Amino acid sequence: MDHFKGPLKNDCEELLGRFQATESVRFERFSAIWKDMNFSSIFFDKPDPKERRHFARLALSVVSPYFHPPYTFQIRVGCLYLLYGLFHTQLCTPKEKIRIALKDWKDVMQFQQDAENAQHHDVVYIFKKLMSDKAFHFTAMPKMLFCRMKREDGKGKKVCEEFVDPPTRTQELITTDVLEELVNVHEHYENLKKAVFTDSDPNVNLVEQNLVSKLNNAILTYSNWQENHTKAEQLDAGEGPSNQDSSRRAQLLASIKSRSYGQVMEASKARRHRQSQLVLSSDGDHTSNTSSKKKRPPSLKNRTQLRFKIQGTEREKLTNATRLWNLSKVKEDKVTEKKKQFTWRSKP
Amino acid sequence: MAESSVLTLNSNVPVFEYTDVSSKEFHIGSFRDLWLNALNPDVYSYSDTTPDIQDVQLIEEMGIEPETLEELKNMCSVESLRSEHEDTDTVPADSQLSTLKLRKRRQEYKESLTRDHIDRHEAYANELEMICVGKKPEDLGDLVPEGELILTFNVLYPVLFQRFKHVRAYQTLNVLGSQKLTELKDAICCVSDLQVFGEFSNSPDMVPQFISKDHYKSAFFFFNGTFYNDMRFPECRDISATTIEWARTRDFPEFEIAKMEDTCFHDLKMKVGFPYYYTHQGDCEHVVILTDIRLVHQDDCLDKKLYPLITHKHRVVTRKCSVCHTYISRWVTSNDALAPTDPCLFCEQCFRLFHYDDKLEKVGDFVAYAYVDPGTFN
Q: Please, is B288 exposed, middle or buried when counting C-beta atoms within 10 Å of its C-beta (0-12, 13-18, 19+)?
């Protein structure tokens, strides 16, 4: 059942991605996308209550992380709608609930407050409806913890970069409050200096005069650069003229390097016994593609057959010889269908 | 806002110690108080507010007109999300969703298998869950109070087989926060509790009726450096004393002891997802993991008498008699010249017929012990 985690994550990210593209937080947009993808059919399956419940629980747990920071407000709204949809379209009774941990409750309340302040009535309505439908379980930790020491491959941990705001660490560090304080301190300092020294001695000027305004300008230019940089990266899908030059140069460099490394310096006569050899580095991929299936050690039957292969043919002759009386039996069509093992990951 | 700052600083808010593996230690009673302070009592009560009252509350809280509310209800109704064809039992053939593509492949594979019948045990396992869900007690005094905590413990079976380490068999128990540790201890089903001691080859009819559970009642839990001993009965002994003595001679921090019957779960400080320890019968050791703590919900089982509740039990294959392969084995013999293997299992009839002649005298040399099958709890 855990194999469904990957496809579920893909489907949810696709839905949220399309919602993000609409650049709106209205429920009608969301429900249009939902209907277009026919998302409620995700629960359709043979009526097996245990499987249904397990799948519903998995679906809700895959979607829940998108409801909390560091995702953007729009993604969190989309996740709320998605949880609402999944909760109501699930097929098991009583319904599987959405888990909220104590540590995330503060963020949830903040989110609700933001939505109320921005007058997003549909967001608030849906959240309150979920609360009144008792759709939440108030828990200690966001997931049930079974002490899984074996780390799964790190794919589950990746935070989708498009859904997260670009990092704003400098803006967070230098806020308006900090700037105000700096201005106050600076004024105070200047006043103290004037009080102590009657004429302005140039040696005392150790601090930049326009410290605060310069700091502010620096932050603004940085944030502008960041915006332009991200926009430029997005527009960079097609190659612009400046990019072509740089890529040509890069290709030239690469070809020179490969030629130089391809040629192995021939050792001098004194060192012929230590010839250097070119080792290709293409074998590095093998280690990463180890299949998760462990190969079963061959069974006792197979091992004995392998060991006694030479004698095996003789045995067959003997057994065949005694089967002469079987000739009259109707030959059955042997449909030798080898049972194939189900591969969870489909071959591309 | 003061409340939220308290939440961030309070050490009783559970956070991950190792991400996705276990949490840091926190006091369970304080955790419950934090949740109850943060929530409106309506949110976790068992009763539902009527739709009219709900509407009035919404209008007040959101500061909107009744017409806006009606509009909202229409726009955000669940009906707008349901799909057109309501055939929920089949996977739709053409779908863009990768989950459904995988499911279709799996279904096709399963249909290609020749045998596909539901195990009898699985059918019963579903019923076990269905019985307890949403059950309300007849006597309202037994109703689980609102705002109570439910803790979920996984008790792993002691490792018996070397080969089966990939699947750790466990049973899942739900307990209430206000219950004592002794109630959890009584609810754990372990086959070693049912063992009967003694060698009975000479007197097979005289198998005594007592079981180990009645004889050896000592047990302890080990949580976060404290041993909780069961001291309810006069014959219970403090079996953790040996471990504490041993630890004192080496460089271990001092362990404490407490009584199991005096401690309830609210008083404990625990880590979620961390493996703890339960020992009984002197040396039968189980790993106990606290997997989940949450507030009680109206859809849970609300009858106090049914807790601790077993929600999941791993099935163990029952060992049948070596002779008839039909009946469950009751005897195990050793050093038996007549038996093909050592040790060898027999059911009651085969054992008598095989090892005793007409005059009920022992045939051959062997030792026989009573055997309790690990699958008795299925």
A: buried
Question: Is B289 in Cβ contact with A134 (below 8 Å)?
Answer: no
Structure letter (DSSP) for residue B320: B
d(CA B150, CA B308): 10
Report the distance separating Cα A82 and Cα A18, nearest Å: 12
To the nearest 10°, report the CA torsion of B258, B263, B269, B272.
110
Query: Contact A45/B75, CB-based, under 8 Å?
Result: no
Asked if A37 contacts A15 with a C-beta cutoff of 8 angstroms, the reply is: yes
Kindly calculate the radius of gyration of chain A based on its CA atoms and give it in whole angstroms: 34
Q: Kindly state whether A153 is in contact with chain B, defined as any CB-CB distance less than 8 angstroms.
A: no
3-state secondary structure of B280: strand
Instruction: Tell me the C-alpha distance between B367 and B199, whole Å.
Output: 7
Radius of gyration (C-alpha) of chain B in whole angstroms: 28
| CA contacts within 13 A on the Cβ side of A194 | 5
pTM: 0.71
Inter-chain CB proximity A102 and B38 less than 8 Å:
yes
Cα-Cα-Cα-Cα dihedral of B107, B111, B115, B119, to 10°?
30
Residue A173 Cα, gap to closest chain B Cα (Å):
20
Burial of B125: CB neighbours in 10 Å, binned 0-12, 13-18, 19+: middle
CB distance B291–A144 less than 8 Å? yes
The residue among B88, B171, B268, B290 with the most chain A CBs within 10 A of its CB, best to mutate, is: B88
CB < 8 Å from A in window 280-319 of B? 289, 291-295, 297-299
Run means of pLDDT, 10 residues per run, chain B, 378 residues: 48 76 84 87 80 80 80 80 70 76 80 64 63 67 84 82 64 90 87 75 70 77 87 77 84 84 88 88 85 87 84 78 85 82 84 80 78 72
Closest CA to A98 of A57, A42, A41, A129: A57
Q: How far does A235 lie from chain B, in Å, by closest CA?
A: 29
Token pair in block for residue A106: 């503060």
Nearest C-alpha neighbor of B331 from the set B372, B378, B360, B376: B372
B276 contacts chain A (CB < 8 A):
no
For residue A27, what are the contacts with CB-CB under 8 A and spacing of at least 6? A81, A122, A123, A126, B75, B76
Per-residue tokens: A324: 């002469």
- A172 CB burial (10 A radius; 0-12, 13-18, 19+): exposed
